[in-house]
Amino acid sequence: MPERIVAVNRKAQHDFEILETYEAGIVLTGPEVKSLRQGKVSLAEAYAKVNKGELWLYNMHIAPYDPVLQRNYDPRQPRKLLMHRREIDRLMGLTQQRGLTLIPLRVYFNERGYAKVELGLARGKRKVDRRREIIEREMKREVERALKGRRSS
Questions:
Q1: How much is the pTM?
Q2: What is the DSSP track for 76-127?
Q3: Do 6 and 107 touch, CB atoms closer than 8 A?
Q4: Which of 10, 82, 102, 109 could make an S-S bridge to 48, C-beta 3.0–4.6 Å?
Q5: CA 124 to chain CA mean position, Å
Q6: CA–CA–CA angle 38, 39, 42 (5° rounding)
């Protein structure tokens, strides 16, 4: 069974410069897993943070699973992430010192059927950086168009 992507954080590539990526498991309840399999998840404002030596994912929205009545269910509750101790310690040092943040890039089910989240160690882009990126993209398109025009004639 190949890897099945459930949700992708498209805005992360636009707003952040991704330096490194990590894979982490997510601690979920049964109904949350079923809701995840239906694709009812949003990573729009989600971020990860080390709290008391444990890695937690905040603001990831998992919609309630309809067939199961869940009392007092908070779709945005913090969810624990599973990583090796060495990796968590390294991430804690990086995020505290350099002003970096952990952003979930995508949520997926791996080959064994476990829910995983891909985290990106990211630095926020400033407005100037985003504008420069747009200008470079436009210039690249113009060059492609010019080359395409010369090839066809």
A1: 0.72
A2: T--EEEE--HHHHHHHHHHHHHS--EEEEEEEEE-TTS-EEEEEEEEEEPPH
A3: yes
A4: 102
A5: 14
A6: 145
CA distances for 133 relative to 15, 33, 126, 130, angstroms: 11, 37, 11, 5
Spatial separation of the C-alpha atoms in residues 43 and 153, rounded to whole Å: 47
pLDDT of 78-96, one tens digit each? 888 998 999 888 888 888 8
**Run of H or E including 50:** strand 47-51
Per-residue pLDDT tens for 4-51? Answer: 888 888 877 777 888 888 898 998 888 888 888 888 888 888 888 888
Tokens of 41: 């998840």
Three-class secondary structure of residue 11 per DSSP: helix
Amino acid residing at 34: K
For residue 33 the two structure tokens come to 């897993």
Question: Is the domain 4-125 a CATH 2.40.280.10 member?
Answer: yes
